[in-house]
Specification:
Elements (H helix, E strand, L loop, with lengths): L5 E7 L2 E7 L12 E8 L3 H16 L8 E9 L4 E8 L2 H22 L4 E14 L11 E9 L4 H16 L8 E9 L4 E8 L2 H9 L10 H7 L4 E20 L1
Antiparallel strand pairs: 1-2, 2-10, 3-5, 3-6, 4-5, 4-10, 6-8, 7-9, 7-10, 8-9
């Protein structure tokens, strides 16, 4: 029998867990206490693909590293140079276990295949609020839009208030833009940043939504002005990515 979706068996005590390649993670899953997000700069579209292939090989040839890792996904930046990494964990201790026992060997294999990867800052988040995928919505996520917002110092209440302001502004829109699927707002555990992981059908849908005339999403209004000029907001950006690889542990066998 040919196994097409199972790469390795993972042992947790006496249980055997299989590892599956999946279509996408679920950013709103209730058992994920934290999410980690980072960016690699690999330089060119060809090196993007080479790095994804190397990640698939390095992870597929080893056991799933830790039962506390719930999903690991990689996305290719439309700039042709970057890869976004998004992983979900049961807690910080699970991640630290992975760093201590597993990460270096996997990264060494990837670096041998694609030398010169620049690993940019890694940030830790907790999911705060989602505009979730509607029940029965089976549309595929063809584009993930990452909105980063940075503040001038740690303030958890400010993080949440900014996110709530976005939802308030969205609430005054007559209709949501075509192609939008869901948005998941994550608050940085250091209190200084927010990350919105927004699911779209395609990059073209997101571009059209931004360019829409009149009272489109983010268009001038008192509520959107408050979002865009929020006190203490010092930076951020908007970047589009294409999902290219997603993994999670399967059930016991």
């Amino acid at each position: 029998m040919v196994v097409t979706r199972t790469e390795r068996c993972v042992r947790e005590g006496n249980a055997v867990m299989t590892t599956h390649f999946t279509d996408r993670p679920d950013p709103a899953r209730a058992d994920a206490q934290i999410a980690k997000a980072s960016t690699w700069n690999v330089g060119t579209p060809q090196r993007q693909q080479d790095a994804v292939d190397a990640i698939r090989k390095a992870w597929g040839s080893r056991e799933w590293p830790h039962p506390g890792l719930l999903s690991y996904s990689v996305y290719a930046g439309e700039d042709g140079a970057t890869l976004l990494h998004y992983s979900q964990w049961t807690g910080e201790q699970a991640y630290q276990d992975f760093v201590r026992e597993e990460r270096d060997a996997r990264n060494a294999e990837i670096d041998a295949a694609v030398p010169g990867i620049e690993r940019l800052a890694l940030h830790t988040y907790e999911l705060y609020r989602s505009g979730p995928r509607a029940q029965g919505d089976t549309r595929e996520t063809g584009c993930v839009v990452i909105v980063d917002v940075e503040f001038d110092g740690p303030d958890a209440a400010r993080q949440r208030d900014w996110v709530d302001s976005v939802f308030e502004a969205l609430g005054e829109e007559e209709s949501l833009p075509a192609g939008g699927i869901a948005a998941h707002f994550h608050a940085g555990t250091d209190g200084t940043r927010v990350l919105n992981y927004a699911e779209w059908e395609s990059a073209e849908h997101h571009i059209a939504a931004l360019a829409a005339p009149g009272e489109g999403v983010g268009s001038p209004s008192p509520l959107w002005e408050r979002v865009q000029k929020y006190p203490g907001m010092t930076g951020g950006g908007v970047h589009r990515y294409t999902p290219v690889l997603s993994m999670e542990p399967g059930g016991g066998a």
